[in-house]
C-alpha cells in the first residue's frame, strides 16, 4: 500500500505539473479520467490479503479518491456554468498544448489568432454588460477561468520569446495587447454580477453558505458520525462550561461574576512594543519545561533546536490577527504603519496571557512537532491530511494541559479559557452560517459579546472563515471536534494500560489521518473494507 499511495500522489502531482490551466475543460476531463482509473485500480486490490496496517491505508486511499472526485465534480459544475466566457481560448489552446512538446509555432498565423481572440473578448464584454451573473461567486469563477488561461498563455509565450527570432518578431506586440485585454476582461468579469444578490448585513463580509447537504457529505468524508445540529449542541455544552470557568477565574482576580471586566484586565497585560518575541520565547520555554518534567511526550532535540520565528506582515494581520505557527512561529503584533486604534487592538488581542495556551499549540507539542515528525514517520500518509488531525491534536494539548493545572495564575486561566471558548464559538457560528441561519454580522457580534474579542479581531476571524479560500466549510469546527476525538481516544487507551507518553508518541509516529481511523491502528483492531463513520466519541467531556 505504501508504493500504491506514493504512486497515487506522484501521478496526481505529475498531472498537475503538466495540465497547469486548472480552470479548463482539458484539466477537468483529464482529472475525471485520473480518478476513474484509480477507483478501478483500488477495486483490484484484495482487501482480505492485506495486513491490518495496509487495510487502514486502503480505506484511507479509497476515501481520499472518492472525496477528491466529489470535490472535482462540484468544481466542474461551477465551471460549466460559466465556461462560455472563455470561448476565445479554443483557437489558442493548441498553441499551449503544442508548446509542451516544443513544436515551433507558425508565428504569423498565431499573431492573427491572438488578434481574433481580442475581438471575441470585446464582443463578450458587450454581451455580458447586459447579462450579469447571478452572484459574486459565479463572477469569481468566470474571472478565474480567464486568469487561469492567461497564466498558461504567459508561460507558453515566455518559452519561445527571445529564443525563436521569428516568434519574437511576430508575437511581441500581439501578446502584449492580448495580455492587457485578458487582465481587463478578468477584472470586468469579477465585478459583473447582480449587486442585488449581495446580502450585506453591514459587516461588509460576503460569502455563500454551503448548506446542510454539503456539510453532511463533508463530515462523512472525515468519518464524523454527527449532524451539524448535534455538533452545535456539543459546542454549546462546552461553551457553557467555559463560561462558568471564566467566572471562577474572574472571582479569583477580584472581579466577582463580571468575567468581561476580568477579561478587559487581561487584555491590558500586553507587553511594550519590541518585547513580543521575547515574551513568546518565555512562554515556549515554560511549556516545554512543563511537559518534559511530566514525561508526557518525546521531544527530539533537533525539533527543539530548529524551530524559528518570523514577524507577521500587516497585510496578513488583516485576515489573521493572531500569531500562527508550523515550521516557524509567525508573530502578530503592531507595526509602524497601523493606526493607533489598530495597534491597541493587536496588542490587547496578543497579550501574553492570551498567548499562554497557543505558543505550545503552534510549536511543541503542536504544529511544529507535527511537521517535524510527519517528515520522518510514514511520510507517504501526508496525502491524508485533515484539520481534524492537524488542528485537533494542537487543541487536544490545550485541553490536556488545562487538566494538569498548566496555568499558574487566574490571568493565565482566563487566557486559556478565552481560546477554549473561542473554539467552541467557531463550531457554533461557522455551522450556523453554513446552514444559512446566521449572517456574518451575527457571527461577529457573538465573538465580541459572548467570547470577548476585540471587534477588529472578530471581524478578521469571520472574514477568514467565509470570504476567503483559506478555510473550507469544516475547518473552523475541526479544532474542538478533533481535540475531543483525541481526548476520547486517549481515555480509551489509558483505560487499557497505556501511558500518556506511549499514546502521544504513537500518534506522532503514524502521521496524518482522520482520528476515528487512527483509532483502529492504536487499538489494534481490523478496519472493515467499507468502513463508514460510526465512532461516537464523548460529547459530555469537560
What can you tell me about this protein's structure?
- By secondary structure, this protein is an all-alpha fold.
- Helix content is 65%, strand content 1%.
- The protein is globular and about 80 Å long.
- The model has no long low-confidence stretch (mean pLDDT 94).
- 41% of the residues are buried.
- Strands 1-2 form a two-stranded parallel ribbon.
- The chain has helices at 2-18, 25-43, 52-82, 93-99, 107-129, 136-160, 165-191, 212-221, 228-252, 259-267, 276-293, 301-306, 314-319, 340-349, 352-355, 359-362, 367-374, 387-403, 410-434, 440-451, 455-466, 475-495, 500-510, 515-522; strands at residues 308-311, 328-331.
- The longest helix has 31 residues, at 52-82.
Helices, strands, pairings?
Elements: H1 2-18, H2 25-43, H3 52-82, H4 93-99, H5 107-129, H6 136-160, H7 165-191, H8 212-221, H9 228-252, H10 259-267, H11 276-293, H12 301-306, E1 308-311, H13 314-319, E2 328-331, H14 340-349, H15 352-355, H16 359-362, H17 367-374, H18 387-403, H19 410-434, H20 440-451, H21 455-466, H22 475-495, H23 500-510, H24 515-522
Parallel strand pairs: 1-2
Helix pairs in contact: 1-2, 2-3, 3-6, 3-24, 4-6, 5-7, 6-7, 9-10, 9-19, 18-22, 19-20, 19-22, 20-21, 22-24
Amino acid at each position: 500500500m505504501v508504493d500504491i499511495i506514493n504512486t497515487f500522489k506522484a501521478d496526481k502531482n505529475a498531472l498537475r505539473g503538466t495540465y497547469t490551466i486548472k480552470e479548463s475543460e482539458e484539466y477537468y476531463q483529464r482529472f475525471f479520467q485520473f480518478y476513474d482509473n484509480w477507483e478501478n485500480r483500488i477495486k483490484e486490490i484484495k482487501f482480505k490479503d492485506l495486513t491490518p496496517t495496509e487495510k487502514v491505508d486502503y480505506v484511507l486511499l479509497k476515501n481520499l479518491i472518492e472525496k477528491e472526485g466529489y470535490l472535482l465534480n462540484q468544481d466542474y459544475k461551477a465551471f460549466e456554468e460559466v465556461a462560455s466566457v472563455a470561448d476565445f481560448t479554443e483557437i489558442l489552446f493548441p498553441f499551449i498544448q503544442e508548446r509542451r512538446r516544443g513544436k515551433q509555432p507558425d508565428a504569423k498565423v498565431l499573431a492573427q489568432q491572438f488578434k481574433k481572440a481580442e475581438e471575441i473578448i470585446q464582443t463578450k464584454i458587450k454581451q455580458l454588460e447586459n447579462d450579469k451573473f447571478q452572484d459574486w461567486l459565479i463572477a469569481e469563477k468566470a474571472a478565474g477561468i480567464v486568469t487561469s488561461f492567461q497564466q498558461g498563455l504567459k508561460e507558453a509565450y515566455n518559452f519561445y520569446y527571445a529564443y525563436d527570432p521569428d516568434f519574437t518578431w511576430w508575437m511581441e506586440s500581439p501578446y502584449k495587447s492580448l495580455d492587457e485585454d485578458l487582465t481587463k476582461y478578468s477584472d470586468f468579469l469579477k465585478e459583473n454580477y447582480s449587486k442585488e444578490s449581495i446580502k450585506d448585513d453591514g459587516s461588509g463580509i460576503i460569502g455563500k453558505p454551503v448548506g446542510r447537504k454539503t456539510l453532511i457529505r463533508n463530515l462523512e468524508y472525515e468519518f464524523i458520525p454527527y449532524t451539524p445540529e448535534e455538533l452545535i449542541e456539543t459546542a454549546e455544552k462546552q461553551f457553557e462550561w467555559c463560561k462558568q470557568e471564566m467566572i471562577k477565574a474572574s472571582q479569583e482576580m477580584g472581579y466577582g461574576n463580571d468575567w468581561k471586566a476580568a477579561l478587559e484586565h487581561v487584555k491590558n497585560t500586553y507587553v511594550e512594543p519590541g518585547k513580543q518575541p521575547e515574551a513568546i520565547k518565555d512562554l515556549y520555554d515554560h511549556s516545554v519545561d512543563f511537559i518534559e518534567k511530566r514525561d508526557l511526550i518525546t521531544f527530539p532535540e533537533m525539533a527543539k533546536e530548529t524551530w524559528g520565528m518570523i514577524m507577521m506582515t500587516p497585510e496578513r494581520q488583516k485576515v489573521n490577527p493572531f500569531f500562527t505557527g508550523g515550521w516557524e512561529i509567525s508573530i502578530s503584533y503592531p507595526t509602524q504603519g497601523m493606526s493607533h486604534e489598530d495597534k491597541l487592538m493587536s496588542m490587547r488581542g496578543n497579550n501574553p496571557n492570551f498567548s499562554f495556551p497557543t505558543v505550545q499549540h503552534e510549536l511543541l507539542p503542536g504544529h511544529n512537532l507535527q511537521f517535524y515528525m510527519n517528515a520522518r514517520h510514514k511520510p507517504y500518509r501526508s496525502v491524508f491530511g485533515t484539520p481534524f488531525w492537524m488542528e485537533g491534536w494542537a487543541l487536544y494539548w490545550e485541553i490536556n494541559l488545562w487538566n494538569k493545572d498548566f496555568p499558574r495564575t487566574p490571568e493565565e486561566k482566563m487566557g486559556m479559557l478565552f481560546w477554549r471558548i473561542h473554539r467552541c464559538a467557531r463550531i457554533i457560528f461557522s455551522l450556523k452560517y453554513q446552514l444559512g441561519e446566521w449572517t456574518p454580522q451575527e457571527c461577529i457580534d457573538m465573538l465580541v459579546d459572548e467570547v470577548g474579542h476585540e471587534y477588529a479581531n472578530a471581524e478578521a476571524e469571520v472574514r477568514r472563515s467565509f470570504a476567503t479560500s483559506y478555510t473550507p466549510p469544516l475547518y473552523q469546527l475541526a479544532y474542538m471536534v478533533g481535540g475531543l476525538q483525541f481526548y476520547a481516544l486517549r481515555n480509551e487507551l489509558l483505560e487499557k494500560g497505556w501511558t500518556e507518553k506511549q499514546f502521544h508518541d504513537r500518534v506522532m509516529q503514524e502521521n496524518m489521518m482522520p482520528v476515528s481511523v487512527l483509532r483502529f491502528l492504536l487499538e489494534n483492531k481490523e478496519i472493515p473494507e467499507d468502513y463508514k463513520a460510526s465512532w461516537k466519541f464523548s460529547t459530555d467531556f469537560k
